[in-house]
Amino acid sequence: MIKTQTTTKRDIPKVTPKVTPQEDISHKVAESAQRFYAYQYPRETKAVELNDGELPSRYDTTQVTLLARDPHYIHAYWDIAPDAHDQMRQQVGAEYDRSTYTLRMYDITKKEFNGHNANSSFDVAIQPHQNNWYVNLWGDNVNYCGEIGVKTPQGQFYPIARSNVVHTPRASISERSDMMWMDVKENRQDAFIYTWSRANRISNAIDKAGTQWPVQTKPGRKIYLSEDDIRAYYSSLFPLLSKIRKRRNGNGATANDIKDIGKYSHRELIEDISIPGISKSEYYRRYRLGDSAELVERGGGSEQNFVGASESVHQLPQRKFFFEIWTELIVYGRTEPDAKVYLDQKNIPLRKDGTFTLRYALPDGRIPFNFAAISHDQIDRRTIKTAVERSQTKYGS
Amino acid sequence: MLHAHLPYVRHPEEEYFLEENWFYEAITETYIPLLNMFDRLTKDGVDFRLTMSLTPPLMAMMRDELLQQRYVRHLDKLIELSEKELERTSYDPHYHGLSLMYHERFKQSRDVFVNKYKCDLVKGFAKFQNMGCLEIIASCATHGFLPNMQVNPESIRAQIQIGVDYYKKVLGKQPKGFWLPECGYFPGLDDFLKEAGIRYFFVDSHGIMHSDPAPRYSVYAPLYCPSGVAAFGRDWESSKQVWSSKEGYPGDPDYREYYRDIGFELEFDYIKPYIHPQGIRINTGIKYWRITGDTEYKEAYRPDWAREKAASHAGNFMFNREKQVEHLSYHMDRQPIIVSPYDAELFGHWWFEGPMWIEFLARKMCFDQQTVKMITPSEYLKKYSKNQMAYPSASSWGYKGYSEYWLEGSNDWIYRHLHMAEKRMAELGQKFAQYGEKDPRRSRIKRALNQAVRELVLAESSDWPFIMKTGTMVPYAHKRVKQHISRFTRIYEDLNNKTLDPAWLDEVEWRDNIFWELDCGKYYIKSKGRGNGKPKSKVSRKRKTVKARKQKTSRRSRQPA
Q1: What ipTM was reported for this prediction?
Q2: Has this prediction a pTM greater than 0.90?
Q3: Do residues B388 and B499 both lie within one domain?
Q4: How many domains does chain B have?
Q5: Is the minimum CB–CB distance between A295 and chain B shorter than 8 Å?
Q6: Nearest 5°: phi and psi at A220?
């Protein structure tokens, strides 16, 4: 029996563990929920059959959608409405019967796509019965857009629908290592970067372990970054923090700078924190901490089986041949219904007809049983003594 | 950091439903032991900190009357079974002690559940949050995997907002942290979190390591996304010690074996009343064997040995963390933070001695050393409000680190239906915009809209594709997705054709009543249209000026279109 305490006006009836599916609990709703509380009306006894049908195999639209699965795979699914076939037939004309439906993938990294200005593209031929595909890419951290259409044997492509733009994740550590900071307080957040003058950029310091590390001395002044700067940093225009700094200091970006952007977009930069004589990997080993870096470089950080639920904790039982037995002992008996039965001083409850059944796990060894039965008026008394033995179990093959 | 989540499984239409057992097992073996552990620690004055995420479906199930009653019924049956076991094993010395142990546990669980927390476990967790030693963070409405929903930003916003609002309603305060389902992150998601008022969230290690630009302190300090929300990265070393199936603690031979349960072993007629009514054998929770090693032959469980092992593993874990922190602080000019998130179900359900291990760890960390201290992320942010700014990379903590687990051969077919349903919901939101403020008790159309949102979020749950991939209860997952999508489609068609059937709507409302207290429709019905539904981050407003200045189209290459 549960008595649940609530702070409501009415007393609720005592609720038993047996489930009564429909009880009126409208009085339990807090004030704020009263507005939207629409359920648990007292229900009529007639149950409504919910015929949840199957899902449609297609929707009557023509579309293609891309989903980024991991750095090198995009999942594409599409739907071509029946009237789109007719439309295409008209558009393509005579060649339609020898044309194939194709999915054309456009690489549009760092571009606004208008149909013609992709960096590159490739085609995937589609079978008529197919409606999805896993597209394999050879680069990570790229943007893709897809178009589904008809391609004639001559190579002419007539698109029907265009997909959304997806961005695949990075698969490696970023080449940029500029250090931008942010200070978030209750009601404002400031982003800024530090500047150092060339003179006091590096100095050797001795740390607690006694080794000499090149360590940055105290930084110079702060330059606060505006949202424009942050956006510019993440756009194709100004990938270098130094350009932003120059711009803020008053030296505008020259035409040459803009031309040079293309050169800088994928090169390695260890700009402000460059230390002569140390290679990039060495720098990472010393300053980018933790074993995670190496692990991530090797295999994406998830070489271990990071399955969300803990099924990686226990190995699933191997499917080897198994054979086990257990033995149980059932002792049953009968007497007059109102008598009392004792097994080693413990009272055994009888059923209404005076019978009883006892079940025990039977391990190796000898188990004695000493029963005694006494009649209701305490005059008659019987005892039965026995013992059960299971000899030592041997396992073999 | 413990992530507690269960899919919303509540079937009032049937007296006994097998999948509801997941919930009952989790309460008996994980949540009640955790609460008892918090109780003991606070009584003894141990200064510990733990972060927990209670997802909205789990909170909704814990507060639901029907499931509470059914749980007590389940527990009563277990107590009965353990009494019978006590008798059955009276001559068997190895197992009698164990059945006594289970008997006591079940009785104590019932007492704690019914009398101490009055059947509402959420209040128990809230009590410890108010004491300051536990921080509860919010999560998405039904644990939907957000990177796969990028095509429809409206639905991402709805998942996050519903999760945050439900948290506010149940626990009464604004959540500071957020648990992204499966740590699924993509750049731009933080803008949605910022809208909801979140201060920090968690990503997997390679989310931080592959950030743009590269992180100075790798995963041992948080990164600020340009929107101002902090991202904490998982530490691989400490996770491996617990998660790894080969070298982790839970695989130790002295611990209890999960896959040997009396529900499968005992004779059929005896165990029949305690397994599924149709005679399917299931786990009961009473297990007598220990792992013993990589062998078929298992030995009897010895609780005292297991307890000693848990204590020594806790000590080992703490020692490793001490060494790790000492090594790190040579290279860092601030105190490093080590983030170890785990599924809460691991502790207690899969790994029986898990809560014991946490308790030992908390006590040892408090009293036996001075190097490492337990801390919550918001305390760390208060201490170090200045952190590096970078965009973490798109990642998840699933197998292979990205979205593959939820998007592969067994489950990719659901996405065309989900995306279509999401688009249709946005359509409905615009079409019925004038119902935004209506009271659902007076307006059947508003009720239908609310219910449509409920069906949609139930279908979006990441548990269904997860189950389809792992292959455990696949027909059930199929059934759930189909049910919710087809019910949604029917509401959509009915609303467009004005053919709502009130009896059918009543029945669906009664069955799928997650978030019945919330006005779900308002997350999609916007009185002022916002266009494409992307978040209004400050950055996008300035787009025009830059464009005008540069006369070149510049795109933030990371923003999803």
Answers
A1: 0.85
A2: no
A3: no
A4: 2
A5: yes
A6: -85, -140
